[in-house]
Amino acid sequence: MKEQLRHAIQAALKECYRTGTLDSGVVPDEIQLEVPKNPDHGDFSTNLAMALAKAERKAPRQIAEVLSVAMQGNPLCDKVEIAGPGFINFRLQATHWYDVLHQIMQQGEQYGRCQVGNGKKIQVEFVSANPTGPLHIGHGRGAVVGDAVAAVLQAAGFEVQREYYVNDAGNQVQTLGNSILLRLRELQGEAIVFPEDGYQAGYIVDLAKQLLAEQVGLANATEAEAVETCARFGVAEVLKWIEADLKAFGIHFDHWYSERSLYDRGMVDQELSKLKEKGLSYEQDNALWLRTTEYGDDKDRVLIKSDGSYTYFASDVAYHMEKFDRGFERVIDVWGADHHGYIPRMKAMLAGLGHAPEDLEVLLIQMVNLLRDGQPFVMGKRSGNFVTLREVINEVGSDACRFFFLMRRCDSQLDFDLELAKQQNSDNPVYYVQYAHARVCSINRNAEESGIPLPRREDVDLSRLELAEELALAKYLARYPETIVGAALNYEPHRVIFYLQELAAQFHSYYNRQRVLVDEAAITQARLYLVNAVRRVLANALKMLGMSTPEQM
RNA sequence: GCGCCAGUAGCUCAGUUGGAUAGAGCAACGGACUUCUAAUCCGUAGGCCGAGGGUUCGAAUCCUUCCUGGCGCGCCA
Known about the structure:
The protein is an alpha/beta fold. Helices cover 50% and strands 13% of the residues. The strands form 4 sheets. Strands 7-6-5-11-12 form a 5-stranded parallel β-sheet, sandwiched between helices. Strands 1-2-4-3 form a 4-stranded antiparallel β-sheet. It has a 3-stranded antiparallel β-sheet with strand order 8-9-10.
Protein backbone atom coordinates (compact mmCIF):
# COMPACT_ATOMS: atom_id res chain seq x y z
CA MET A 1 0.00 0.00 0.00
CA LYS A 2 2.83 2.32 0.92
CA GLU A 3 4.52 1.29 -2.31
CA GLN A 4 1.42 2.01 -4.36
CA LEU A 5 1.27 5.49 -2.92
CA ARG A 6 4.97 5.97 -3.55
CA HIS A 7 4.51 5.08 -7.20
CA ALA A 8 1.56 7.43 -7.47
CA ILE A 9 3.62 10.29 -6.06
CA GLN A 10 6.46 9.50 -8.43
CA ALA A 11 4.06 9.50 -11.34
CA ALA A 12 2.62 12.83 -10.22
CA LEU A 13 6.10 14.31 -9.99
CA LYS A 14 6.96 13.20 -13.51
CA GLU A 15 3.68 14.58 -14.74
CA CYS A 16 4.62 17.95 -13.24
CA TYR A 17 7.91 17.90 -15.11
CA ARG A 18 6.12 16.97 -18.33
CA THR A 19 3.62 19.76 -18.06
CA GLY A 20 6.27 22.20 -16.91
CA THR A 21 4.78 23.11 -13.56
CA LEU A 22 8.07 22.00 -12.09
CA ASP A 23 11.31 22.16 -14.01
CA SER A 24 14.32 20.80 -12.13
CA GLY A 25 13.74 17.26 -13.37
CA VAL A 26 15.13 15.84 -10.15
CA VAL A 27 13.65 12.52 -9.12
CA PRO A 28 14.87 11.27 -5.73
CA ASP A 29 16.00 7.66 -5.55
CA GLU A 30 13.47 6.94 -2.91
CA ILE A 31 10.60 9.16 -1.99
CA GLN A 32 10.43 9.30 1.76
CA LEU A 33 7.04 8.33 3.02
CA GLU A 34 6.33 7.98 6.70
CA VAL A 35 3.46 7.50 9.05
CA PRO A 36 3.10 10.72 11.02
CA LYS A 37 3.03 10.57 14.79
CA ASN A 38 0.03 12.80 14.87
CA PRO A 39 -2.99 11.18 13.21
CA ASP A 40 -4.25 14.64 12.26
CA HIS A 41 -1.44 14.66 9.76
CA GLY A 42 -2.97 11.88 7.74
CA ASP A 43 -2.03 8.28 7.10
CA PHE A 44 1.17 9.00 5.25
CA SER A 45 3.33 12.03 4.87
CA THR A 46 6.14 12.99 2.53
CA ASN A 47 8.83 15.62 2.78
CA LEU A 48 9.33 15.58 -1.01
CA ALA A 49 8.52 19.25 -1.48
CA MET A 50 11.12 20.24 1.11
CA ALA A 51 13.69 17.95 -0.44
CA LEU A 52 13.13 19.51 -3.86
CA ALA A 53 13.18 23.09 -2.63
CA LYS A 54 16.84 23.60 -3.35
CA ALA A 55 16.85 22.16 -6.84
CA GLU A 56 13.63 23.92 -7.78
CA ARG A 57 14.62 27.17 -6.11
CA LYS A 58 11.10 27.59 -4.92
CA ALA A 59 9.50 27.70 -1.52
CA PRO A 60 8.63 24.20 -0.27
CA ARG A 61 4.97 25.04 0.20
CA GLN A 62 4.76 26.26 -3.37
CA ILE A 63 6.13 22.97 -4.66
CA ALA A 64 3.84 21.07 -2.34
CA GLU A 65 0.93 23.00 -3.83
CA VAL A 66 1.83 21.95 -7.37
CA LEU A 67 2.33 18.32 -6.36
CA SER A 68 -0.86 18.09 -4.40
CA VAL A 69 -2.82 19.42 -7.36
CA ALA A 70 -1.28 16.67 -9.46
CA MET A 71 -2.31 14.12 -6.85
CA GLN A 72 -5.90 15.29 -6.61
CA GLY A 73 -8.38 12.75 -7.83
CA ASN A 74 -6.01 9.84 -7.27
CA PRO A 75 -8.18 6.86 -6.38
CA LEU A 76 -5.89 5.83 -3.52
CA CYS A 77 -6.40 9.02 -1.64
CA ASP A 78 -9.32 10.39 0.21
CA LYS A 79 -7.57 13.65 0.94
CA VAL A 80 -4.28 15.37 0.09
CA GLU A 81 -3.22 18.26 2.27
CA ILE A 82 -0.28 20.59 2.66
CA ALA A 83 0.86 21.34 6.18
CA GLY A 84 3.64 22.84 8.24
CA PRO A 85 6.80 23.85 6.40
CA GLY A 86 5.80 21.89 3.29
CA PHE A 87 4.74 18.38 4.19
CA ILE A 88 2.23 16.73 1.92
CA ASN A 89 -0.17 14.61 3.94
CA PHE A 90 -2.25 11.85 2.46
CA ARG A 91 -5.34 10.30 3.90
CA LEU A 92 -6.23 7.01 2.25
CA GLN A 93 -9.67 5.69 1.43
CA ALA A 94 -11.05 3.60 4.28
CA THR A 95 -11.46 0.61 1.96
CA HIS A 96 -7.69 0.25 1.84
CA TRP A 97 -7.65 -0.36 5.55
CA TYR A 98 -10.50 -2.82 5.32
CA ASP A 99 -8.45 -4.71 2.75
CA VAL A 100 -5.69 -5.05 5.33
CA LEU A 101 -8.09 -6.88 7.64
CA HIS A 102 -9.01 -9.24 4.82
CA GLN A 103 -5.34 -9.88 4.12
CA ILE A 104 -4.67 -10.73 7.74
CA MET A 105 -7.57 -13.15 7.97
CA GLN A 106 -6.70 -14.74 4.68
CA GLN A 107 -2.98 -15.10 5.31
CA GLY A 108 -3.38 -16.24 8.92
CA GLU A 109 -0.11 -17.44 10.34
CA GLN A 110 1.67 -16.17 7.27
CA TYR A 111 0.68 -12.56 7.85
CA GLY A 112 3.77 -10.53 8.60
CA ARG A 113 6.13 -12.86 6.80
CA CYS A 114 7.73 -11.63 3.63
CA GLN A 115 10.51 -12.36 1.18
CA VAL A 116 12.86 -9.40 1.50
CA GLY A 117 15.53 -11.86 2.62
CA ASN A 118 15.09 -13.63 -0.67
CA GLY A 119 16.21 -16.97 0.74
CA LYS A 120 19.68 -15.65 1.50
CA LYS A 121 21.56 -18.05 3.75
CA ILE A 122 22.43 -16.51 7.06
CA GLN A 123 23.79 -18.01 10.23
CA VAL A 124 23.17 -16.83 13.75
CA GLU A 125 25.66 -18.14 16.24
CA PHE A 126 24.73 -17.44 19.82
CA VAL A 127 25.11 -18.47 23.44
CA SER A 128 28.26 -20.53 22.71
CA ALA A 129 28.99 -20.46 26.43
CA ASN A 130 31.97 -22.49 27.54
CA PRO A 131 30.81 -25.94 28.62
CA THR A 132 32.39 -25.56 32.01
CA GLY A 133 29.36 -24.61 34.05
CA PRO A 134 25.64 -23.97 33.89
CA LEU A 135 24.25 -21.00 32.00
CA HIS A 136 23.80 -17.85 34.00
CA ILE A 137 21.55 -14.90 33.53
CA GLY A 138 23.84 -13.09 31.11
CA HIS A 139 23.83 -16.09 28.79
CA GLY A 140 20.07 -16.00 29.01
CA ARG A 141 19.94 -12.56 27.50
CA GLY A 142 22.20 -13.57 24.63
CA ALA A 143 20.16 -16.72 24.12
CA VAL A 144 16.87 -14.88 23.87
CA VAL A 145 18.17 -12.09 21.70
CA GLY A 146 19.96 -14.50 19.37
CA ASP A 147 16.92 -16.68 19.04
CA ALA A 148 14.68 -13.68 18.40
CA VAL A 149 17.04 -12.22 15.81
CA ALA A 150 17.02 -15.57 14.05
CA ALA A 151 13.23 -15.74 14.22
CA VAL A 152 12.75 -12.26 12.86
CA LEU A 153 15.17 -12.94 10.00
CA GLN A 154 13.30 -16.11 9.17
CA ALA A 155 10.05 -14.20 9.09
CA ALA A 156 11.62 -11.73 6.71
CA GLY A 157 12.49 -14.49 4.29
CA PHE A 158 16.07 -15.37 5.13
CA GLU A 159 17.19 -18.97 5.38
CA VAL A 160 18.52 -19.08 8.89
CA GLN A 161 20.63 -21.56 10.79
CA ARG A 162 21.02 -21.37 14.56
CA GLU A 163 24.40 -22.59 15.74
CA TYR A 164 26.10 -23.11 19.08
CA TYR A 165 29.88 -23.14 19.05
CA VAL A 166 31.13 -25.49 21.74
CA ASN A 167 34.50 -24.50 23.16
CA ASP A 168 35.48 -28.02 24.06
CA ALA A 169 39.18 -27.53 23.46
CA GLY A 170 41.63 -25.37 25.29
CA ASN A 171 42.62 -24.30 28.74
CA GLN A 172 39.24 -23.83 30.32
CA VAL A 173 38.38 -27.44 29.59
CA GLN A 174 41.66 -28.55 31.17
CA THR A 175 40.79 -26.51 34.22
CA LEU A 176 37.41 -28.16 34.38
CA GLY A 177 38.94 -31.63 34.17
CA ASN A 178 41.52 -30.80 36.76
CA SER A 179 38.94 -29.33 39.13
CA ILE A 180 36.77 -32.40 38.88
CA LEU A 181 39.71 -34.73 39.37
CA LEU A 182 40.79 -32.92 42.53
CA ARG A 183 37.31 -33.02 43.99
CA LEU A 184 37.13 -36.69 43.12
CA ARG A 185 40.31 -37.39 45.04
CA GLU A 186 39.01 -35.32 47.90
CA LEU A 187 35.91 -37.48 48.00
CA GLN A 188 38.14 -40.51 48.13
CA GLY A 189 39.75 -39.13 51.25
CA GLU A 190 42.86 -37.59 49.84
CA ALA A 191 44.08 -34.29 51.18
CA ILE A 192 44.25 -31.88 48.28
CA VAL A 193 45.21 -28.31 47.69
CA PHE A 194 42.58 -26.75 45.47
CA PRO A 195 44.21 -24.24 43.16
CA GLU A 196 43.20 -20.59 43.13
CA ASP A 197 42.25 -20.69 39.46
CA GLY A 198 40.25 -23.92 39.70
CA TYR A 199 36.47 -23.87 39.47
CA GLN A 200 35.26 -23.52 43.03
CA ALA A 201 31.54 -23.94 42.46
CA GLY A 202 29.53 -26.71 44.09
CA TYR A 203 28.52 -28.34 40.85
CA ILE A 204 32.13 -29.48 40.38
CA VAL A 205 31.72 -31.65 43.45
CA ASP A 206 28.44 -32.97 42.06
CA LEU A 207 30.17 -33.93 38.85
CA ALA A 208 32.91 -35.63 40.83
CA LYS A 209 30.35 -37.61 42.83
CA GLN A 210 28.61 -38.64 39.65
CA LEU A 211 31.86 -39.74 38.13
CA LEU A 212 32.67 -41.68 41.26
CA ALA A 213 29.30 -43.38 41.16
CA GLU A 214 29.87 -44.42 37.58
CA GLN A 215 33.06 -46.15 38.70
CA VAL A 216 35.17 -44.90 35.89
CA GLY A 217 38.54 -46.49 36.37
CA LEU A 218 41.20 -43.87 36.77
CA ALA A 219 43.52 -45.95 38.87
CA ASN A 220 45.89 -46.96 36.09
CA ALA A 221 45.66 -43.72 34.18
CA THR A 222 48.43 -41.20 33.98
CA GLU A 223 47.74 -37.78 35.41
CA ALA A 224 47.13 -36.34 31.95
CA GLU A 225 44.79 -39.16 31.02
CA ALA A 226 42.85 -38.74 34.24
CA VAL A 227 42.40 -35.02 33.65
CA GLU A 228 41.36 -35.75 30.08
CA THR A 229 38.77 -38.28 31.19
CA CYS A 230 37.37 -35.92 33.77
CA ALA A 231 37.31 -33.09 31.25
CA ARG A 232 35.44 -35.11 28.64
CA PHE A 233 33.00 -36.31 31.21
CA GLY A 234 32.48 -32.80 32.58
CA VAL A 235 31.96 -31.22 29.18
CA ALA A 236 29.45 -33.87 28.18
CA GLU A 237 27.48 -33.46 31.40
CA VAL A 238 27.53 -29.69 31.39
CA LEU A 239 26.38 -29.66 27.79
CA LYS A 240 23.40 -31.74 28.83
CA TRP A 241 22.54 -29.11 31.42
CA ILE A 242 22.93 -26.33 28.93
CA GLU A 243 20.78 -28.05 26.38
CA ALA A 244 18.10 -28.67 28.98
CA ASP A 245 18.19 -25.06 30.15
CA LEU A 246 17.81 -23.82 26.62
CA LYS A 247 14.99 -26.25 26.05
CA ALA A 248 13.20 -24.81 29.08
CA PHE A 249 13.51 -21.52 27.26
CA GLY A 250 12.11 -23.00 24.08
CA ILE A 251 15.38 -22.54 22.26
CA HIS A 252 16.55 -25.10 19.78
CA PHE A 253 19.82 -25.10 17.88
CA ASP A 254 20.05 -26.53 14.40
CA HIS A 255 23.68 -27.29 14.89
CA TRP A 256 26.19 -27.75 17.71
CA TYR A 257 29.66 -27.14 16.39
CA SER A 258 32.60 -28.58 18.29
CA GLU A 259 35.83 -26.63 18.50
CA ARG A 260 37.65 -29.86 19.15
CA SER A 261 36.33 -31.25 15.89
CA LEU A 262 38.07 -28.43 14.05
CA TYR A 263 41.39 -29.74 15.32
CA ASP A 264 40.46 -33.40 14.91
CA ARG A 265 39.63 -32.85 11.27
CA GLY A 266 42.76 -30.79 10.73
CA MET A 267 40.67 -27.79 9.80
CA VAL A 268 42.72 -25.34 11.82
CA ASP A 269 45.98 -26.22 10.07
CA GLN A 270 44.22 -26.30 6.75
CA GLU A 271 42.71 -22.84 7.14
CA LEU A 272 45.92 -21.43 8.57
CA SER A 273 47.88 -22.65 5.58
CA LYS A 274 45.41 -20.84 3.34
CA LEU A 275 46.21 -17.65 5.20
CA LYS A 276 49.90 -18.32 4.77
CA GLU A 277 49.47 -18.84 1.03
CA LYS A 278 47.79 -15.50 0.79
CA GLY A 279 50.68 -13.91 2.63
CA LEU A 280 48.46 -12.86 5.49
CA SER A 281 50.52 -14.52 8.19
CA TYR A 282 54.20 -14.49 9.08
CA GLU A 283 56.57 -15.94 11.65
CA GLN A 284 58.32 -13.90 14.28
CA ASP A 285 59.79 -14.73 17.67
CA ASN A 286 58.96 -18.37 17.04
CA ALA A 287 55.28 -17.56 16.80
CA LEU A 288 52.87 -17.33 13.87
CA TRP A 289 51.17 -13.96 13.44
CA LEU A 290 48.24 -12.75 11.39
CA ARG A 291 48.59 -9.40 9.70
CA THR A 292 45.43 -7.88 11.05
CA THR A 293 46.94 -4.38 11.22
CA GLU A 294 46.72 -4.15 7.46
CA TYR A 295 42.97 -4.22 7.84
CA GLY A 296 42.41 -1.83 10.67
CA ASP A 297 43.44 -3.70 13.81
CA ASP A 298 45.68 -2.10 16.43
CA LYS A 299 48.29 -4.81 16.32
CA ASP A 300 48.96 -8.10 14.65
CA ARG A 301 47.64 -11.17 16.44
CA VAL A 302 49.22 -14.44 17.35
CA LEU A 303 47.81 -17.63 15.85
CA ILE A 304 50.37 -20.14 17.08
CA LYS A 305 52.30 -19.40 20.24
CA SER A 306 56.03 -19.86 20.51
CA ASP A 307 55.46 -23.06 22.48
CA GLY A 308 53.63 -24.48 19.49
CA SER A 309 50.13 -24.35 20.94
CA TYR A 310 47.27 -22.60 19.19
CA THR A 311 45.57 -19.50 20.45
CA TYR A 312 41.82 -19.28 20.83
CA PHE A 313 41.95 -16.83 17.96
CA ALA A 314 43.43 -19.50 15.67
CA SER A 315 40.47 -21.81 16.02
CA ASP A 316 38.10 -18.88 15.79
CA VAL A 317 39.68 -17.85 12.51
CA ALA A 318 39.36 -21.35 11.15
CA TYR A 319 35.83 -21.62 12.44
CA HIS A 320 34.70 -18.40 10.78
CA MET A 321 36.47 -19.16 7.53
CA GLU A 322 34.64 -22.42 7.43
CA LYS A 323 31.30 -20.74 8.06
CA PHE A 324 31.63 -19.04 4.71
CA ASP A 325 32.82 -22.27 3.13
CA ARG A 326 29.56 -23.76 4.30
CA GLY A 327 27.74 -21.30 2.07
CA PHE A 328 26.49 -18.66 4.42
CA GLU A 329 26.37 -15.29 2.80
CA ARG A 330 26.13 -13.56 6.09
CA VAL A 331 27.19 -14.59 9.55
CA ILE A 332 25.93 -13.12 12.79
CA ASP A 333 27.75 -13.62 16.08
CA VAL A 334 26.07 -12.78 19.34
CA TRP A 335 28.70 -11.98 21.93
CA GLY A 336 28.92 -10.56 25.38
CA ALA A 337 29.92 -6.92 25.20
CA ASP A 338 33.11 -7.63 27.11
CA HIS A 339 34.42 -9.31 23.95
CA HIS A 340 34.06 -6.21 21.81
CA GLY A 341 37.81 -5.75 21.58
CA TYR A 342 37.82 -8.93 19.54
CA ILE A 343 35.79 -7.53 16.67
CA PRO A 344 38.51 -5.60 14.82
CA ARG A 345 40.74 -8.66 14.48
CA MET A 346 37.88 -10.83 13.27
CA LYS A 347 36.81 -8.25 10.71
CA ALA A 348 40.42 -7.76 9.69
CA MET A 349 40.81 -11.48 9.14
CA LEU A 350 37.73 -11.55 6.92
CA ALA A 351 38.79 -8.46 5.03
CA GLY A 352 42.10 -10.15 4.29
CA LEU A 353 40.16 -12.99 2.76
CA GLY A 354 38.17 -10.62 0.60
CA HIS A 355 34.94 -10.45 2.54
CA ALA A 356 32.94 -7.29 3.02
CA PRO A 357 32.82 -6.02 6.60
CA GLU A 358 29.06 -6.52 6.73
CA ASP A 359 29.41 -10.21 6.01
CA LEU A 360 30.15 -10.66 9.68
CA GLU A 361 27.82 -8.84 12.02
CA VAL A 362 28.64 -8.98 15.70
CA LEU A 363 25.81 -8.20 18.07
CA LEU A 364 27.14 -7.18 21.42
CA ILE A 365 24.92 -8.01 24.32
CA GLN A 366 25.55 -5.60 27.14
CA MET A 367 25.88 -6.79 30.68
CA VAL A 368 23.01 -7.89 32.79
CA ASN A 369 23.38 -6.41 36.24
CA LEU A 370 21.86 -8.93 38.51
CA LEU A 371 20.22 -7.52 41.60
CA ARG A 372 18.40 -9.00 44.49
CA ASP A 373 16.26 -6.55 46.43
CA GLY A 374 18.13 -3.75 44.77
CA GLN A 375 21.50 -5.07 45.91
CA PRO A 376 24.11 -6.05 43.34
CA PHE A 377 24.73 -9.71 43.05
CA VAL A 378 28.26 -10.76 42.26
CA MET A 379 28.64 -13.29 39.50
CA GLY A 380 31.46 -15.46 38.41
CA LYS A 381 31.91 -19.15 37.96
CA ARG A 382 34.91 -19.28 40.15
CA SER A 383 33.36 -17.56 43.11
CA GLY A 384 30.68 -20.21 43.06
CA ASN A 385 28.08 -17.66 44.01
CA PHE A 386 26.00 -17.14 40.90
CA VAL A 387 22.42 -17.41 39.85
CA THR A 388 21.77 -19.87 37.12
CA LEU A 389 19.51 -19.23 34.20
CA ARG A 390 17.47 -22.24 35.21
CA GLU A 391 16.71 -20.75 38.61
CA VAL A 392 15.51 -17.56 37.00
CA ILE A 393 13.33 -19.34 34.47
CA ASN A 394 11.79 -21.41 37.23
CA GLU A 395 11.11 -18.34 39.31
CA VAL A 396 9.96 -15.89 36.70
CA GLY A 397 8.71 -18.11 33.92
CA SER A 398 9.96 -18.45 30.38
CA ASP A 399 7.52 -16.02 28.78
CA ALA A 400 8.20 -13.21 31.23
CA CYS A 401 11.91 -13.84 31.09
CA ARG A 402 12.00 -13.70 27.31
CA PHE A 403 9.88 -10.62 27.20
CA PHE A 404 12.06 -8.88 29.76
CA PHE A 405 15.23 -9.61 27.81
CA LEU A 406 13.70 -8.42 24.57
CA MET A 407 12.30 -5.19 25.94
CA ARG A 408 15.54 -3.32 25.64
CA ARG A 409 17.96 -2.74 22.84
CA CYS A 410 20.71 -5.28 23.32
CA ASP A 411 23.44 -2.64 23.39
CA SER A 412 22.26 -1.01 26.54
CA GLN A 413 22.84 -2.47 29.94
CA LEU A 414 20.06 -4.20 31.74
CA ASP A 415 19.26 -4.25 35.42
CA PHE A 416 17.60 -7.49 36.33
CA ASP A 417 16.24 -7.56 39.83
CA LEU A 418 15.20 -11.07 40.74
CA GLU A 419 12.76 -10.01 43.44
CA LEU A 420 11.24 -7.46 41.12
CA ALA A 421 10.93 -9.95 38.30
CA LYS A 422 9.26 -12.43 40.61
CA GLN A 423 6.85 -9.85 41.93
CA GLN A 424 5.95 -8.81 38.46
CA ASN A 425 3.48 -11.63 38.00
CA SER A 426 0.55 -9.36 37.34
CA ASP A 427 2.51 -6.22 36.56
CA ASN A 428 4.74 -7.70 33.94
CA PRO A 429 4.13 -6.30 30.48
CA VAL A 430 4.07 -9.74 28.96
CA TYR A 431 0.77 -10.40 30.68
CA TYR A 432 -0.56 -7.15 29.32
CA VAL A 433 0.02 -8.38 25.79
CA GLN A 434 -1.13 -11.92 26.42
CA TYR A 435 -4.23 -10.64 28.16
CA ALA A 436 -5.22 -8.79 25.02
CA HIS A 437 -5.04 -12.08 23.16
CA ALA A 438 -7.02 -13.89 25.85
CA ARG A 439 -9.68 -11.21 25.75
CA VAL A 440 -10.35 -11.71 22.07
CA CYS A 441 -10.61 -15.43 22.70
CA SER A 442 -13.06 -14.69 25.46
CA ILE A 443 -15.18 -12.58 23.14
CA ASN A 444 -15.18 -15.43 20.65
CA ARG A 445 -16.34 -17.85 23.33
CA ASN A 446 -19.15 -15.53 24.31
CA ALA A 447 -20.18 -15.12 20.71
CA GLU A 448 -20.25 -18.84 20.27
CA GLU A 449 -22.39 -19.35 23.38
CA SER A 450 -24.85 -16.80 22.10
CA GLY A 451 -25.03 -18.57 18.78
CA ILE A 452 -23.33 -15.74 16.94
CA PRO A 453 -21.35 -17.08 14.00
CA LEU A 454 -17.78 -15.94 13.44
CA PRO A 455 -17.72 -13.60 10.48
CA ARG A 456 -16.75 -14.80 7.05
CA ARG A 457 -15.05 -12.65 4.53
CA GLU A 458 -17.87 -12.94 2.03
CA ASP A 459 -20.54 -11.80 4.44
CA VAL A 460 -18.89 -9.21 6.61
CA ASP A 461 -19.55 -5.56 5.87
CA LEU A 462 -16.47 -3.75 7.11
CA SER A 463 -17.86 -0.36 6.28
CA ARG A 464 -19.67 -0.74 9.57
CA LEU A 465 -16.33 -0.07 11.23
CA GLU A 466 -17.01 3.63 11.32
CA LEU A 467 -15.20 4.69 14.47
CA ALA A 468 -11.88 6.46 14.25
CA GLU A 469 -10.37 4.04 16.76
CA GLU A 470 -11.44 1.06 14.65
CA LEU A 471 -9.75 2.51 11.62
CA ALA A 472 -6.72 3.35 13.75
CA LEU A 473 -6.51 -0.26 14.87
CA ALA A 474 -6.63 -1.49 11.28
CA LYS A 475 -3.94 1.00 10.33
CA TYR A 476 -1.72 -0.21 13.11
CA LEU A 477 -2.22 -3.82 12.08
CA ALA A 478 -1.08 -2.80 8.61
CA ARG A 479 2.27 -1.78 10.07
CA TYR A 480 3.12 -5.22 11.40
CA PRO A 481 4.94 -6.48 8.28
CA GLU A 482 7.14 -3.40 8.02
CA THR A 483 7.91 -3.69 11.73
CA ILE A 484 9.29 -7.17 11.12
CA VAL A 485 11.35 -6.06 8.18
CA GLY A 486 12.81 -3.22 10.22
CA ALA A 487 13.55 -5.54 13.12
CA ALA A 488 15.20 -8.07 10.80
CA LEU A 489 17.36 -5.75 8.75
CA ASN A 490 18.56 -3.94 11.85
CA TYR A 491 18.81 -7.02 14.06
CA GLU A 492 16.57 -5.33 16.57
CA PRO A 493 13.91 -7.69 17.82
CA HIS A 494 12.90 -5.24 20.54
CA ARG A 495 10.99 -3.34 17.89
CA VAL A 496 8.50 -6.18 17.74
CA ILE A 497 8.06 -6.04 21.51
CA PHE A 498 7.25 -2.35 21.37
CA TYR A 499 4.87 -2.96 18.54
CA LEU A 500 3.13 -5.64 20.59
CA GLN A 501 2.75 -3.38 23.59
CA GLU A 502 1.32 -0.60 21.49
CA LEU A 503 -1.08 -2.89 19.70
CA ALA A 504 -2.26 -4.38 22.99
CA ALA A 505 -2.74 -0.89 24.40
CA GLN A 506 -4.86 0.19 21.46
CA PHE A 507 -6.91 -2.95 21.73
CA HIS A 508 -7.47 -2.69 25.50
CA SER A 509 -8.53 0.90 25.09
CA TYR A 510 -10.98 -0.01 22.35
CA TYR A 511 -12.30 -2.91 24.40
CA ASN A 512 -13.05 -0.64 27.33
CA ARG A 513 -14.86 1.92 25.23
CA GLN A 514 -16.81 -0.24 22.85
CA ARG A 515 -18.61 -3.52 23.01
CA VAL A 516 -17.94 -5.98 20.26
CA LEU A 517 -21.09 -8.03 20.72
CA VAL A 518 -23.86 -5.50 20.22
CA ASP A 519 -27.52 -5.72 19.22
CA GLU A 520 -26.97 -4.93 15.59
CA ALA A 521 -25.71 -8.09 13.92
CA ALA A 522 -23.83 -6.35 11.10
CA ILE A 523 -21.79 -4.25 13.50
CA THR A 524 -21.07 -7.27 15.68
CA GLN A 525 -19.79 -9.14 12.67
CA ALA A 526 -17.55 -6.31 11.53
CA ARG A 527 -16.11 -5.84 15.02
CA LEU A 528 -15.55 -9.55 15.50
CA TYR A 529 -13.64 -9.52 12.25
CA LEU A 530 -11.50 -6.63 13.47
CA VAL A 531 -10.65 -8.05 16.90
CA ASN A 532 -9.82 -11.42 15.42
CA ALA A 533 -7.40 -9.72 13.08
CA VAL A 534 -5.84 -8.19 16.19
CA ARG A 535 -5.69 -11.60 17.78
CA ARG A 536 -4.02 -13.02 14.70
CA VAL A 537 -1.24 -10.45 14.74
CA LEU A 538 -0.70 -10.74 18.49
CA ALA A 539 -0.46 -14.50 18.16
CA ASN A 540 1.90 -14.37 15.18
CA ALA A 541 4.28 -12.03 16.95
CA LEU A 542 4.20 -13.84 20.29
CA LYS A 543 4.81 -17.19 18.66
CA MET A 544 7.59 -15.82 16.54
CA LEU A 545 9.36 -14.59 19.66
CA GLY A 546 8.87 -17.88 21.46
CA MET A 547 6.11 -16.87 23.83
CA SER A 548 2.81 -18.54 24.48
CA THR A 549 -0.61 -17.30 23.45
CA PRO A 550 -3.03 -18.13 26.25
CA GLU A 551 -6.71 -18.29 25.34
CA GLN A 552 -7.70 -17.78 28.91
CA MET A 553 -6.04 -16.04 31.82
C1' G B 1 46.62 6.74 27.28
C1' C B 2 43.64 4.23 23.20
C1' G B 3 39.02 1.84 21.76
C1' C B 4 33.64 0.14 22.15
C1' C B 5 28.66 1.06 24.36
C1' A B 6 25.55 4.23 26.90
C1' G B 7 23.74 9.33 28.90
C1' U B 8 16.03 11.44 27.12
C1' A B 9 10.36 12.53 33.08
C1' G B 10 11.86 10.65 40.19
C1' C B 11 13.08 5.10 38.21
C1' U B 12 13.41 1.64 33.73
C1' C B 13 13.49 2.70 28.74
C1' A B 14 11.24 3.88 23.35
C1' G B 15 11.86 7.45 19.65
C1' U B 16 9.73 5.02 12.40
C1' U B 17 17.47 5.95 10.32
C1' G B 18 17.13 14.19 9.72
C1' G B 19 10.69 15.88 10.24
C1' A B 20 5.54 18.83 12.51
C1' U B 21 3.63 20.05 19.75
C1' A B 22 9.87 14.57 22.39
C1' G B 23 6.52 9.40 23.98
C1' A B 24 5.41 4.69 27.01
C1' G B 25 5.66 1.65 31.52
C1' C B 26 6.56 1.79 36.69
C1' A B 27 6.23 5.14 41.04
C1' A B 28 2.56 9.62 42.76
C1' C B 29 -2.41 11.68 42.74
C1' G B 30 -7.90 11.48 41.17
C1' G B 31 -11.70 8.58 38.78
C1' A B 32 -14.36 3.82 36.12
C1' C B 33 -16.57 -3.11 37.59
C1' U B 34 -25.46 -5.20 37.79
C1' U B 35 -23.11 -5.04 30.43
C1' C B 36 -17.97 -9.49 25.85
C1' U B 37 -12.30 -11.12 31.93
C1' A B 38 -10.61 -4.52 36.32
C1' A B 39 -3.94 -8.97 34.76
C1' U B 40 -8.04 -3.57 32.00
C1' C B 41 -9.39 1.58 31.04
C1' C B 42 -9.78 7.23 31.62
C1' G B 43 -7.60 11.63 33.64
C1' U B 44 -3.72 14.88 36.42
C1' A B 45 1.32 15.88 37.23
C1' G B 46 6.25 15.32 35.70
C1' G B 47 11.69 17.56 30.37
C1' C B 48 18.04 22.56 29.40
C1' C B 49 16.93 15.04 25.24
C1' G B 50 24.74 15.11 29.77
C1' A B 51 27.38 20.28 28.18
C1' G B 52 29.37 23.57 24.41
C1' G B 53 30.19 24.44 19.19
C1' G B 54 29.05 23.13 14.01
C1' U B 55 26.24 21.17 9.45
C1' U B 56 20.55 23.01 7.06
C1' C B 57 14.54 24.75 5.48
C1' G B 58 14.55 21.48 10.17
C1' A B 59 18.83 17.99 15.06
C1' A B 60 17.26 13.78 20.75
C1' U B 61 19.05 11.77 15.87
C1' C B 62 24.70 13.65 11.71
C1' C B 63 30.11 16.03 12.65
C1' U B 64 33.43 17.98 16.55
C1' U B 65 35.40 19.02 21.57
C1' C B 66 34.57 18.06 26.50
C1' C B 67 31.98 15.68 31.09
C1' U B 68 29.95 11.20 33.54
C1' G B 69 29.09 5.78 33.94
C1' G B 70 30.07 0.68 32.19
C1' C B 71 33.29 -2.59 29.53
C1' G B 72 37.69 -3.84 26.99
C1' C B 73 42.98 -3.09 25.47
C1' G B 74 47.90 -10.75 26.83
C1' C B 75 52.01 -15.51 22.80
C1' C B 76 44.44 -15.71 28.45
C1' A B 77 39.78 -17.85 27.09
